[in-house]
Every structure is written in C-alpha cells, then in structure tokens.
C-alpha cells in the first residue's frame, strides 16, 4: 500500500511540474498533434479528389436540370373582332306618311315595340268594302244550294215520266214520240242540276275571293305599324314625323348585342384543333376578358386568305362589348404533356432541327428534337420528350452526341 501511494505522489508531482515549469513545451506538443491530424485529413481529401478526377478523365462539365413533363391546356390563338349577333334595317312595306314621333338612336327597344306608324288613309274603307263583299258572297250560297235542290227534284220527276213512257211504249199504249219527249226532259233536268252545282261552286269561289280581299286589306293595315323584329339597340333615328314612306324606305336600323359574337380566322394548321362547343376566351382592346364557347366553325376556307371562320358566342347582358372591337381569341384544345424550359436551352442540330441536349443513363450527351408549343414569360413549353429527362442548360453548345459529361444539377422550372 505504501508503494502505490508513493507512485501516485510521484505522478502528481510530475504533472504539477510540467504544468507549472514546462507549460510552453506542453502546449507546443498538443498543437503538433492537432496539425498532424489536419494534415492527414487534407491528404485524404486530395486523394479522394484525385481519384474522382481520374474516374472522370475526359468528361465535360455542364449545368443541367431534371425536367418532369406536365399536362398543360393547349390553346389556339386567333386575332379577330366582335360582331353583333344580328343587325337589320327595318323598312316599310307600304306607302304613307309617318304619324309617330321618332325614337332616337341608342335607345333600347324590345321585340314588337313600335318604331314607325303610318297614316291609314282610305285603307279602313277598303277593308269595310271587302267585308261587305264577303257577306254578299256568303248570301249567294243558300240561293245556289236551293237551285241545286230544285234541279234535283226535276231530275227525279223526269225520271218517273221517262219510266212511265217507256212502259207504255212497250205495251203499245204510248207513241214513240212521247218516249223521246220524256227522254229529252230527263236530259234537260240533269243539265239543270249541273248548272245549279256550278252556281254553288261559283258562290263558294266568291266567298274565298272576298275572304282574300278582306285578308289583304287587314294585312295592309297591319303594315302601317312598323315594329322591332327583335330586342336591341337603335343604330339610327327612326323615320321623322311627317316623312313620306314608300315600300323599301328604311324606318330604322337595329343591332342585337346580347349575346355577341367573337369572330376569328384560323389558319389551316390550327383548324383541326378547334371543335364546336370548345371553351374560348378573349382579351379586348380595353383589356377586358370574356369567355364563351365556339358555336360555329367554317368548313370552307376563304379563297384569298385560306383561313377558316370561327365564331364564339359570349354573354353581353350589360352591353359593355360593342360591335367591331378588336379581340385576341384563345380557343382551348386538348391538353398535352410538355416540359417548361428556358428559351436559351434550345439548340439546333447540324440539319437545323430544333431540340435540346440531354444526358442519357450513361452520362453521355445526346440530341433530342422537340416541338415548340407555346412561348410564355416563364419560358417555352416543348413536347416530344420523355416524361422525365435530364436536359443540359449550360454548355450544350460545347458538346456533341456521344461526349461524356459531368453535370451539375440545378432546380427545374415549375
């Protein structure tokens, strides 16, 4: 026990000696150990870097992104204009002086509202005369029918006399002359029936003629009131009070703005992407945006421009959209899978084909052709690429197909 105590005391004295009297040498020894460890770590890093460099000897450093395809709504962009759903100039069908106060342009009218009223003149008297002739024609029908009844009775009487004369002639009690006379009376009675029937037909024809005259007189009176064929806005004043109207003289022009049409013209390359019923939107010159659906697609191209007319019907209940405004129309078409890339990523191959430089599974650069769908502020949408692909964004102009690359990946556009 004493030996262990002596040894412990000697060790404590040695430590105290180095701490008190040899402190500088102790610190230098500790720092030397740490430096040795740092040197070892640096040597290991250099060795790893050297090994990596040796493994990638001959590879070209590039910047790339891992792009994943997205489904986007494709659209056909058309330049066009707004167009009123209907526009018509209402004209007079008869002659006469205007007796109504004019309506001013810009006024809204409903279907059936009076636009112009003409002086009837003698048309009411003509109508009364036509109705009187109709009553007279109807009165002739009973007389004609009575004549038919009388003629039919005479036929029956002549038939009885003819039968009696024929019987007596066969028995020798009547002469041949009496039989001939009875036959003549029978023929005369039948002719009378035909004349009576003709009288009935004439009376009925007279009724139809009189009815036509009444309808014509009434229609002429109806034409004195010129009404709006549909609801809309007056583009012109109606005819002035006291103006003389002739058949074909304009009374007013009306346009219907609700709903309103957007008219565009699609090129041959895009017409197959448009279908009737497709959703469409438009931006007008005042930056207002509207939405509707395609209601008409021409199947015949314009001979001059080789474009196809497209009509989009849009609600315009507040009449905020006017006829003839310029519009940029976007017609939705079937969605497609595409990649969003920076425009600087695109390149051309030796044949002038547009595409991108991609990295295959072996780390080798390869050219992939693309189809440009849309150019936006965020970049360009392209298709014809795999669902997931590594695309070189910086350095694509310095590599060709088959060159091994060392990519540094950056975040793709979302």
From TrEMBL:
Residues 127-168, 200-227 form a coiled coil. Residues 86-255 form the Multidrug resistance protein MdtA-like barrel-sandwich hybrid domain. Residues 266-334 form the CusB-like beta-barrel domain. Keywords: Coiled coil. The keyword tRNA processing does not apply. SUPFAM superfamilies: HlyD-like secretion proteins. InterPro entries: Beta-barrel_RND_2 (IPR058792), MdtA-like_BSH (IPR058625), RND_pump_MFP (IPR006143). The keyword Coiled coil applies. Belongs to the membrane fusion protein (MFP) (TC 8.A.1) family. This is Efflux RND transporter periplasmic adaptor subunit. It comes from Yoonia rhodophyticola.
């Amino acid at each position: 026990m004493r030996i262990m105590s002596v040894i412990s005391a000697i060790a404590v004295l040695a430590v105290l000696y180095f701490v008190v009297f040899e402190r500088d040498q102790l610190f230098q020894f500790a720092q030397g150990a740490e430096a040795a460890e740092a040197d070892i770590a640096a040597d290991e890093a250099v060795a790893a870097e050297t090994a990596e460099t040796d493994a990638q000897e001959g590879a070209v450093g590039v910047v790339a992104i891992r792009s994943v395809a997205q489904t986007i709504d494709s659209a056909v962009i058309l330049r066009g204009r707004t167009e009123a759903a209907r526009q018509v100039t209402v004209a007079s069908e008869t002659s006469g002086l205007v007796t109504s106060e004019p309506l001013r342009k810009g006024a809204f009218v409903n279907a059936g509202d009076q636009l112009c009223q003409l002086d009837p003149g003698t048309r009411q008297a003509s109508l009364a005369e036509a109705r009187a002739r109709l009553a007279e024609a109807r009165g002739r029908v009973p007389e004609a029918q009575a004549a038919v009844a009388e003629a039919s009775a005479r036929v029956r009487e002549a038939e009885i006399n003819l039968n009696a004369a024929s019987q007596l002639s066969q028995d020798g009690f009547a002469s041949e002359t009496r039989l001939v006379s009875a036959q003549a009376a029978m023929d005369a009675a039948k002719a009378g029936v035909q004349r009576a029937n003709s009288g009935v037909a004439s009376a009925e024809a007279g009724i139809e003629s009189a009815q036509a005259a009444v309808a014509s007189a009434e229609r002429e009176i109806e034409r004195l009131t010129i009404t709006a064929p549909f609801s809309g806005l007056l583009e012109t004043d109606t005819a002035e009070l006291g103006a003389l109207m002739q058949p074909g003289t304009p009374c007013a022009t009306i346009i219907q703005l609700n709903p309103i049409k957007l008219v565009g013209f699609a090129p041959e390359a895009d017409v197959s992407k448009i279908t009737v019923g497709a959703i469409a939107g438009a931006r007008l010159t005042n930056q207002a945006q509207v939405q509707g659906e395609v209601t008409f697609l021409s199947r015949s191209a314009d001979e001059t421009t080789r474009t196809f007319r497209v009509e989009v019907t849009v609600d315009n209940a507040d009449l905020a959209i006017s006829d003839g405004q310029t519009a940029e129309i976007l017609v939705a078409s079937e969605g497609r899978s595409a990649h969003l890339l920076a425009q600087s990523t695109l390149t051309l191959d030796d044949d002038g084909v547009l595409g991108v430089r991609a990295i295959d599974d072996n780390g080798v650069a390869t050219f992939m052709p693309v189809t440009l769908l849309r150019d936006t502020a965020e970049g360009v949408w392209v298709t014809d690429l795999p669902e997931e692909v590594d695309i070189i964004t910086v350095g694509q102009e310095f590599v060709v197909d088959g060159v091994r690359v060392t990519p540094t990946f950056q975040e793709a556009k979302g």
